[in-house]
Design brief:
With 175 residues, the protein is mainly alpha-helical. Helices cover 63% and strands 7% of the residues. It comes from Methanoregula formicica (strain DSM 22288 / NBRC 105244 / SMSP).
């Protein structure tokens, strides 16, 4: 088992957020390929494949193979292989699940604090005829943000689950 750690950066999350890039990574894990081969296999334009490969190269998941041939081959790096390796998927899964859980817990906490905050009067002086003009929930914005964060947290967890399921399904399929 390789003891190299995978550092999950914003760029890496951006790269892994595309199903096409994940498919390209899996294809390069089988063998090195050219842009033309990937374009034919995925049925997308060469320019689109080139853009995906540039992002993946920048994230350190793939690398161009130095060669004297006319065609430029790309292959998966050790970091890219570690992402797809079943023995390394458990720590990544735990980290992603923990991150998603903490995001969701923070969102719920912000929502609860905002929702149950004490109401404050708009003004402290009584109106003519007595009474106060009404109450304002000062944390209405916080409540709205809490609800949005809660929804975002749920969506992040769903996306992470789908990525995890995608990695698992492809690692079980024979090459």
């Amino acid at each position: 088992m390789n003891s190299e750690k995978i550092i999950l950066t914003k760029e890496l999350f951006r790269v892994l957020s595309s199903d096409t890039r994940i498919t390209i990574l899996k294809k390069l894990a089988q063998r090195r390929r050219t842009i033309s081969e990937l374009s034919r296999e995925l049925k997308i334009a060469k320019s689109t494949v080139h853009e995906h490969l540039a992002l993946m190269t920048g994230a350190g998941l793939i690398t161009p193979v130095p060669d004297e041939h006319e065609w430029k081959y790309y292959e998966i790096t050790q970091n890219g292989a570690n992402l797809l390796a079943p023995e390394n998927s458990i720590p990544i899964s735990i980290l992603l699940t923990t991150t998603g859980f903490l995001f969701l817990a923070g969102s719920i906490t912000a929502f609860v604090v905002a929702w149950f905050s004490v109401k404050q009067p708009l003004v402290s002086t009584p109106m003519h005829g007595g009474g106060y003009p009404g109450y304002l929930y000062p944390d209405l914005l916080s409540t709205s943000i809490g609800i949005l964060l809660l929804i975002a947290g749920i969506l992040v967890l769903i996306r992470l689950f789908r990525i995890r399921t995608s990695f698992k399904a492809d690692s079980l399929q024979p090459s």
